[in-house]
Amino acid sequence: MLIDFRPHARLRAAAPVDLTASVGPVVGALVRSPWDLARVRVVCDWVQYRENFREPVDARPILPPGREGLELAVDVRRAGDVPLGERAEAVLRDGTAGRAYLEDWGPGSRSCVWDFNALYWNALEAWEKSTGRGYEQALPGGESDARDRDAARDLILDLFGAWDDLARAGALPDELVVVELGVGNGNQAKVFLDEFRRADRACGGDYYRRLHYLMCDYSRHVLDLAGQAVAEHAGRVSAVALDATRPLTSLGFLKYKVFLVYVSNMYDNLPTDEVAQLSDRTYLVETRAYLPAGEDPAPVRRLLKLGPRLLAEADPGRFPDLDAAVAFWRRAWSAVRLEERYVPLAGLDAYQVTPRFNGEALRPLLESGRDVRMHVSNGAVASFTDSLHLLHPHGRLVCHDLFVTDVDGYRTMFRGPGKYDGSVVNWVNGPLLAHIGRRRGFDVHYEPFRNNVVTMTAQARD
Fold first, then answer.
1. In whole angstroms, how far apart are CA 201 and each of 76, 194, 289, 302, 344?
2. Relative orientation angle of helices 378-388 and 430-439, to the nearest 10 degrees
3. What is the CATH number of domain 137-270+377-460?
4. 156-to-167, 192, 259, 402 alpha-carbon distances in Å
5. What is the pTM of this model?
6. Is 145 a residue whose pLDDT tops 60?
7. Other C-beta atoms within 10 Å of 306: how many?
């Protein structure tokens, strides 16, 4: 039996985790079970997201059948709230009994939790009305960590320096294009545009007049809010609704013309699989979403297909108005959980990270040392590589997000999925993006920004 206690730093925290009290009862339940302990792993996490997809104790089969092993997953954060030993005994008896499944097994990126995520952004206005708060207020601290006037000013002055050099060489285009992906409520765009105009006036330049700032987002409601925030810059701004994983589809006319692609807290909200290297074997983590015993999954499936407004129209007996449908949506989202299992991968070359990259890009990360489980960040990789095609030879991509910057970061801390209000959040696999960026001829580096947010910068090599 292997016991992997990942939040080891909390053993020496001001309020330390009691290892014996949290892990001992779980091991006791395993000892009393019929499982071959040589084929059992106990993985302990501190699941920092108050709203998440995990039970305090859950079982993850390690396939294939016939040689099946077991991983028992424990959330030690809840050790003081629930009897972990009793939960472990129940899970080991038949932990899946009565669960109401919303889907069949499949890779995490294809789970219906991403349908919930898309529904949140499509019907954000109705959700915000029901909760009485804007989505940014649901973030830790009540706002995005990526908003900083000093950082915006430094970035703008760097742009001005590059443009001055190009202007002296007679190579600066008349239109200076900046693209922001994932605009939120528009406050970051306003900070950038305000500082840009101020810096241009101070330099006595003509760059503001030539600026074309494109605000891009999946949600039309978000774009409308962002447009109001930057109304005084309306002559310099356009709004584009697009699929963030395929920006080239909507912005292909700007290929190799964009001087800055700015991304803020978006990659962590894009679909992802997870893979693992356990005892020198590579696995895909398959998931299936479920509701607690006794729940009916049929109306939840209808919600995901129709959205709350059409659901109320289609079933007025159960949902007399939009408010009732949204209330049901919120309850369903709070209740949904993910069951997981490990399925062997026949070969990394047969697994597609995106249509352009197969799993061989993961090999140096998975084989970097002891056992590891990590996000593939499929959606972030697709968005990142598409965005690189937008960049002018002197352009750069700057992203503020929740990045894991070293593979060992996956061995010491839970990195999602969690729930932010009605959406999904996962940390982003920074080493994978850096590896893929380098293969495309870009230097990629990371710097701490604020709290848990990291700044990634990608720029073509000289």
1. 55, 11, 54, 54, 60
2. 30
3. 3.40.50.150
4. 16, 8, 11, 23
5. 0.95
6. no
7. 16
% of the chain at pLDDT higher than 90: 90
Reported as a single tens digit per residue, the pLDDT across 170-212 is 999 999 999 999 998 899 999 999 999 999 999 988 999 999 9
Alpha helices by DSSP H, 5-147: 19-32, 84-94, 113-122, 124-131
| Percentage helix, strand, coil for the chain under 3-state DSSP, each rounded to 5 | 45, 25, 30
pLDDT band per the 50, 70, 90 thresholds, residue 139:
low
Please enumerate in sequence order all residues whose Cβ is within 8 A of that of 171, keeping only pairs 6 or more positions apart, or say none. none
| Residue 176, SS3 per DSSP | strand
Q: How far apart are CA 196 and CA 194, in angstroms?
A: 5
Taking phi first (over 0 means left), then psi (-120 to 50 degrees means alpha), and beta for anything else, what does residue 336 get? beta
Cα gap 140→120, rounded to integer Å: 18
Under a CB-based contact definition with an 8 Å cutoff, are residues 258 and 243 in contact?
A: no
Tens of pLDDT, residue by residue over 348-385, are: 999 999 999 999 999 999 998 899 999 999 999 999 99
Query: Between helices 124-131 and 113-122, what is the axis angle to 10°?
Result: 80
- The answer to whether residues 25 and 88 touch, using CB atoms and an 8 Å cutoff, is yes
> Token pair for residue 10?
């909390």
For residue 43, report the phi and psi dihedrals to the nearest 5 degrees. Answer: -115, 120
Three-state secondary structure call for residue 433: helix
Non-local (6+) Cβ contacts of 231 within 8 A are none
Tens digits of per-residue pLDDT, 89-131? 999 998 888 999 999 999 999 999 999 999 999 999 999 999 9
Q: What is the mean pLDDT of the segment spanning 304-319? A: 97
Residue 6: per-residue pLDDT:
94
Question: What 8-state DSSP symbol labels residue 75?
Answer: E
CB neighbour burial string for 61-99, b if at least 16 within 10 angstroms, e if fewer? bbeeeeeebbbbbbbbbbbeeeebbebbbebbeebeeeb
**Are the C-beta atoms of residues 162 and 246 closer than 8 Å to each other?**
no
Q: Is the dihedral of CA 301, 303, 307, 309 positive or negative?
A: positive
pLDDT digits (tens, 9 = 90+) for 322-354: 999 999 999 999 999 999 999 999 999 999 999
Q: Where are the domains of the chain?
A: 1-97, 137-270+377-460
Location of structure tokens 């109401």: 100
d(CA 57, CA 319) in angstroms, rounded, equals 34
